[in-house]
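To the wet lab folks,

You asked to see what we're planning to order before we commit. Fair enough. Below is the target structure as tokens, and below that is the sequence we designed to fit it. If anything looks off to you, flag it before the synthesis order goes out.
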């Protein structure tokens, strides 16, 4: 029977797997056109991290303008993209760290520190975007920040959780490496009559 606790060696791939999930959500956020959308019909507004698109009520074609023409658009895209690139680097480092037999725990703690930097960059991008978008771009109808923007926040939340685990993992070094002998509890028959 295999028992896997929070910090056991057999479960070492959970943290890189979570980082991979954060990367997938980051890709969806970077490529998705659902950062801002019209809340109800007629759907006349749609935006991604890179561009904002509008159309008339009866028009089928979207008219798009690049958000890279705005300083805040470049700043939001750059900070989120820098955070994403560092996240990919952290994923590669985590796979390397957990692949070797002798785990370097200071190395793991460094990955946790980098993940906090990733979270800071992504949060900056995710805060700049809605604040400046609603100030600078004229919105038509009722709009909401939608699914791709949500994937950006979900990726950031996973990164923050992984950062804490990577930073705290060295505190359980002996448990992870299996250096602790199991503790057996024995009670005499007089103290536990139900064992007879």
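Sequence we intend to order:
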């Amino acid at each position: 029977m295999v028992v896997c606790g929070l910090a056991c060696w057999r479960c070492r791939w959970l943290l890189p797997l979570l980082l991979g999930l954060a990367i997938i959500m980051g890709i969806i956020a970077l490529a998705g056109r659902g950062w801002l959308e019209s809340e109800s019909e007629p759907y006349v507004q749609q935006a991604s991290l890179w561009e904002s698109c509008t159309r008339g009520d009866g028009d089928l074609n979207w008219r798009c303008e690049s958000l890279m023409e705005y300083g805040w658009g470049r700043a939001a895209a750059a900070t989120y993209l820098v955070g994403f690139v560092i996240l990919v680097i952290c994923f590669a480092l985590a796979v390397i760290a957990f692949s070797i037999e002798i785990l370097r725990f200071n190395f793991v703690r460094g990955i946790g520190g980098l993940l906090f930097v990733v979270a800071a960059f992504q949060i900056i991008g995710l805060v700049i975007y809605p604040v400046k978008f609603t100030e600078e771009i004229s919105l038509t109808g009722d709009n909401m920040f939608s699914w791709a923007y949500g994937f950006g926040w979900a990726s950031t939340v996973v990164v923050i959780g992984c950062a804490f685990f990577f930073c705290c993992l060295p505190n359980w070094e002996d448990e992870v490496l299996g250096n602790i002998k199991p503790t057996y509890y024995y009670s005499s028959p007089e103290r536990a009559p139900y064992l007879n």
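Structural context that might help your review: The mean pLDDT is 81. The chain has five helices and five strands.

Thanks,
Computational group
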